[in-house]
Write a structure and sequence with these properties.
- The chain contains two helices and eight strands; from the N terminus they run E-H-E-E-E-E-H-E-E-E.
- It is α/β, with parallel strands linked by helices and 133 residues long.
- Strand 7 and strand 8 form a beta hairpin.
- 22% of the residues are buried.
- The model has no long low-confidence stretch (mean pLDDT 93).
Amino acid sequence: MIEIERVDHLVLTVADVDRTVDFYRRVLGMRPVVFGTDRRALAFGNQKINLHQAGRKIAPAAHRPTPGSADLCLVSRGPLADVLTHLAACRVPVEAGPVDRTGAVGPMVSVYLRDPDHNLIEVCSYSGTTAPH
């Protein structure tokens, strides 16, 4: 039997790689990475998000790679109050939250926002497990 340990990387198909890199660097603190033959990615922790430019062929790829079709949940090291303060400073609207959710390892509190391609990005924290009411 196979036992999967963790996610190594995900792929986002994006309309504009530079705009996406700027957003994820500025708003979510990810590190831009260049690899291979001029490929781009965003690194965080022990993971990364590879970026595919919409309309450019990279094989193999998803069956229907489309900007705006992703729904990701990212875990913040710090409290959600700090996330909310930073999002406000970056003028990034919160679409929903804070709300109580159940994540992979238990109760968490989440906020939802959109990236430049309108992917749904959930940022959660396990450090405060009850959303303020």
